[in-house]
Design goal:
It is built from three helices and nine strands, in the order αβααββββββββ. By secondary structure, it is an alpha+beta fold. The radius of gyration is 16 Å and the shape is globular.
């Protein structure tokens, strides 16, 4: 049984590997079809303003045991999905509510790291604006660390949350890579029950 738990934890996320980014034109399915032009009233993209205050500063927690993104997101959100993060979007189909819009407590699903076999999941902590959210997640910097209050910004041309950038805590700036988002899994089963119940 212990060996089984170890195998599950090791395969749970992008095990000590970088988070997913876009390297090609291949796109995973989104919850809703993306438009090719920005919505008429799309909020402006702002990469210059600091997306937090002194009370919501992004922090890397150093006194917690190392974790992968999957068990951390599952425990925090209540979304009961197992297996590698790259499989979460597909596993949630017909089981959990999915959408292309964030909600507090939903799980942001990212896919792809040089290829389509890597993934990452993070839990939405707060919606700051139409383009900015804060997430809590584990193993983003590949050390098994837990990071909280981490800003994520929608940089997609259509303002549809299909492409995001993540705040780089050690450097104190928006990360330079654009990550492909599949969407958000909400902690509500399609049968009407909460995420933790069967």
């Amino acid at each position: 049984m212990v060996l089984g738990l170890v195998v599950l934890l090791v395969s749970a996320c992008a095990s000590s590997r970088p988070a997913p980014i876009i390297y090609s034109a291949a796109r995973p399915p989104l919850a809703a079809a993306a438009t090719t032009t920005p919505p008429r009233n799309a909020p402006a993209l702002d990469l210059t303003t600091r997306p937090f205050d002194d009370y919501s500063t992004p922090v890397i927690i150093t006194d917690l045991p190392p974790s992968e993104c999957v068990p951390y997101a599952r425990n925090l959100s209540g979304v009961q999905i197992w297996g590698d993060a790259v499989t979460w979007w597909r596993q949630a189909e017909n089981k959990y509510a999915r959408s292309s819009r964030p909600a507090e407590g939903s799980v942001l699903v990212l896919r792809g790291w040089k290829d389509e076999t890597r993934g990452h999941v993070a839990v939405v902590k707060m919606i700051l604006s139409e383009r900015v959210i804060r997430v809590d997640h584990a193993n983003w910097l590949r050390g098994g660390e837990v990071s909280i209050n981490v800003p994520v910004i929608d940089v997609s041309a259509a303002n549809d949350w299909s492409q995001v950038r993540v705040w780089h805590i050690p450097g104190g700036y928006w990360g330079g890579r654009t990550y492909e988002a599949q969407g958000f899994i909400h902690p509500y089963r399609l049968n009407g029950s909460a995420g933790l119940s069967g």
